[in-house]
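Each field is set out as follows.
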Amino acid sequence: MTRFVLEADGGSRGNPGPAAYGALVRDGATGAVIASCGATIGQATNNVAEYRGLIGALELAREHAPGEAVEVRMDSKLVIEQMAGRWRIKDPGLRELADRAAALVPEQVTWTWVPRAQNAAADALANEALDEQLRTGRPAVVGVVTGAVDDELPSPHDVAEASHAAPSTSIGAGWRGRLDSDPTVLVLLRHGVTASTVRRLFCGSGGSDPELVEEGREQASRAAAWIARHHQVDAVVASPLRRTQETAGFVARRFGLDVTLEPGVAETAFGAWDGQTFAEIMEQWPEEMSAWLGSTAVAPPGGETFDAVDERVSRARERLVTEYAGKTVVVVSHVTPIKMMVREALGAPMSAIHTLELAPASISTIVWWPDALPSVRNFSLVPE
């Protein structure tokens, strides 16, 4: 067993926006918190804040466990994979932060990605620092602890116990939370067809950004009518791409609402493959395509990995559930982001995205309860 465990996280409210990180060092055997800190870092992106959290954790380890073997646990797939040397670092700013972190890394280190729920302590420290800055109007440093267990921070043992509780206990807790609380309902609507959809082209972010064809507008109209019959909608959110904004407009007009843009639910960036058919890509990039199909950590040339998409979609989903708590929101998006949200709600592995088939202008509905237990009501429903 690794003697010391480092946990780190970071985030910004706006991406970029006011940002902070949380970091702590635990005794690997007992889960006791040896040192912890949360601090604001001014205006920054989520990725910068996550790297600052890693640096903060490594600095704590150097001070309180110098030279010892450590395991670094973060819910940022980007940071973990880049620091482990499996992903390239293209952004110069992140490269500088990665170099700072590398200079602090002890000789023996293990890099471990964990689900967000298992990184709650570091996340809580970052948010506490941001809340303190908002309250006082000044930069904040919070949660500094040395040489003692912080009973308010959940230990890995506590998280493991909660996640492996007997089904009757966990489900019962969920139902108790549902008796007097309203859920947030996300009505996920894929856009109607475009010329690219008809031709079965890869069509992501950063490409031609096509508009709906007549068939796509008819599909969007039918979907809006179905939603109006089954839901009282409080907000309409769409990815910034043209086809989703057009589709969202049909829904928004039904309810007299504006369309709010959410970049986090945009389609995957397919890079050089955008505008190509599967056959064309296999002819020009056979090795790259095989690698991409075999791993969600591989990106198309100049594009985005599915792992990166999953991370930004998860953050977008968290923002939506928080901002529209207890309300019904229509989220107009694309194949990949919708499948990512459904996969997350089902607790399915990443490989599930390759086995889910999502029709154009189809509706998938996920209910997120205040106890964080999701419920999938329907998937890929096509209104007649």
User: Anything to note?
Assistant: The chain is about 40% helix and 20% strand. The CA atoms of residues 364 and 379 lie 4 Å apart.
